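does this look right to u?? pyridoxal-5'-phosphate version
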Amino acid sequence: MWRSAAAVRALRGGGAGGAGAPRAASGAAAARLRQRLENELEDIRGAGTWKSERVIASRQGPHLRLAGGGGGIINFCANNYLGLSSHPEVIRAAVEALEKFGAGLSSVRFICGTQSIHKDLEEKIARFHQREDAILYASCFDANAGIFEALLTPEDAVLSDELNHASIIDGIRLCKANKYRYKHMDMQDLEAKLQEAQKYRLRLVATDGAFSMDGDIAPLREICQLAQKYDALVFIDECHATGFLGPNGRGTDELLGVMDKVTIINSTLGKALGGAAGGYTTGPKPLIDLLRQRSRPYLFSNSLPPAVVGCASKALDLLMESNAIAQSMAAKTQRFRSKMTAAGFTISGKDHPICPVMLGDARLASVMAEDMLNRGIYVIGFSYPVVPKGKARIRVQISAVHSDEDIDCCVDAFTEVGRKHGALR
Ligand code: PLP
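got this back:
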């Protein structure tokens, strides 16, 4: 029987707005919720902490085209440290994995979601970090959410740097261990807390290897010495280190010569290692075996899609073949840091591709970032509550695929904009 389009919409319950139109839930509770959410959103706008998302109309890379705008934007705010996000071999590996292994597993790992490529990648990650074994997660956020609860009990203690990433903080919240927060990179405070925690069965010191807001590197040598003294284990989150810190890009532990003293590493596949997505834990085999049995984000979430596995696997191959890409990024970082310092800016951190241009004032950071974009340089201003009050900054991230001209353009634009706003020393 033929029905009119209006009748079909009515049958589907589409109403006058058409089958695809959004429906507002009715009822007093839904109305109260809507009002509450709108108030909260207004508060965020009022506080000046609203995060808007710019839409990119091209691939991730050093040069972007923004939707609705022109091209020719030089991008300095991705974690694409090694420029592998759009590397032709990485893309080809993803396409091959997609064709051979399909779009996805429609399953968690332990039911029917493990393919040979997942096992191969885990083996490769363990080899890269020189650890016994590795386990994949959908993200490093998940790896951090899943480890502390699986590993620590009320008999244990965890000691965490106060500026650790949100996912470490959340992961620690989920566990029942006794929690200590030590002052950022403050070894005296860590020692005092380790002394307090002597009464527990196990002590785990947890720190970012490199801190993403400041580009500073955890004092891992000192942390490992204290861990040895107080019979503790060390966990590091290497999201901003894997692939490029250290002589062979193994990370902070290699850079600081403590590869045999750090017990557990969590890191991401979503930054230097191809930039697609995914995270992992690597460390002692019994720990990895236990995570496969107990870690909730692993047990109750889909396997990594084959294309994503293909990207990361190829990125690791490229890094294990040569560290030329990492060296090229280090040279560009050095170029940017020294030219900016000479121009009269203060750059926080040392030798890290995260180069925070310290400005202090939140409004200045936001206005300068906007002016930089008008000059074709994409950078982001950060202010309270993301960083402490009075420490607003523009974070610049260097990539191996920036050319020297890109770096110089960025420095020139900063100098011009900084002069305009009186931000130079
Ligand atoms: N840990 C740190 C230090 C990070 O910077 C991030 C990402 O921003 C994560 C964990 C989470 O990584 P992923 O994007 O893989 O979830």
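The chain has two domains: 63-81+323-421, 88-321. idk if thats expected tbh
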